[in-house]
Design a protein that fits this description.
It contains eight helices and three strands; from the N terminus they run E-H-H-E-E-H-H-H-H-H-H. With about 210 residues, the chain is mainly α. The chain has two domains: about 80 residues, no CATH class; about 100 residues, no CATH class. The protein has a three-stranded parallel sheet with strand order 1-2-3. It is elongated and about 60 Å long. InterPro entries: P-loop_NTPase.
């Protein structure tokens, strides 16, 4: 099983190059070496192209032309249904599952009826999006602010709506950004410096040695 980070052309090609190197292609010079290895390696394999959301990227050029492997694509770009054999549209998380996910990350003790109602309202406010719920839960647990979080969140949404960056953002992006930005505001100056450095690196495989 090979994971391809598919959000940019560079990350796709880097992933294919890694496939070549991981499988002992000692003379690998470019990403096509990984593609060639998949073509000629007749045992079954599975490629998972993750986060293929950019409609400007032509994924077909990265499909090995053979019949001994399979490709799975995860994407928020519905147009990709036209280039694959089968597709499955995942529905939004149902309310009960969203509430359970938020509870898992936000609290570790029994709740009062008022606190339970707050959890329900927060999950609803975030449209039950898993990443937003996890971020919100982590913030609530760290700051111990379950009863006031909804007020903070709505204020953050209000501020975001006043910024131009939200004009092209959908409700998923707004929910995720709002919960992330609340957490960002609580970071220390040194933590923000570290995170800013990390923002220039690929989000996978950041070497620990870099910070030692």
């Amino acid at each position: 099983i090979y994971f391809i980070t598919a959000n940019t052309e560079d990350s796709i090609q880097a992933s294919f190059y890694d496939i070549a190197m991981d499988n002992g292609v000692v003379d690998a010079q470019e990403w096509k070496s990984g593609l060639h290895w998949l073509l000629t390696h007749e045992e079954s394999w599975l490629i998972i192209m993750d986060n293929a959301d950019d409609p400007k990227i032509s994924l077909e050029r990265y499909f090995p032309s053979c019949d001994h492997g399979n490709i799975m694509i995860t994407s928020r770009n519905a147009e990709l249904q036209n280039v694959v054999g089968q597709s499955l549209e995942l529905q939004d998380m149902i309310p009960d599952d969203g509430i359970e996910l938020l509870l898992k990350h936000a609290v570790d003790k029994p709740l009062s009826s008022n606190e339970q109602e707050q959890v329900v309202q927060i999950a609803k406010e975030l449209y039950y999006f898993p990443l937003a719920l996890v971020q919100a839960g982590a913030y609530i647990k760290q700051q111990k602010c379950l009863l006031t979080y909804l007020k903070f969140l709505r204020n953050e949404h209000k501020q975001l709506l006043e910024k131009k960056l939200t004009q092209s953002a959908d409700r998923y992006q707004l929910s995720v950004y709002a919960t992330w930005n609340l957490s960002w505001g609580q970071r220390s100056s040194s933590s923000k410096v570290l995170l800013n450095i990390c923002s220039h690196l690929h989000y996978e495989k950041i070497p620990r040695l870099l910070f030692e």
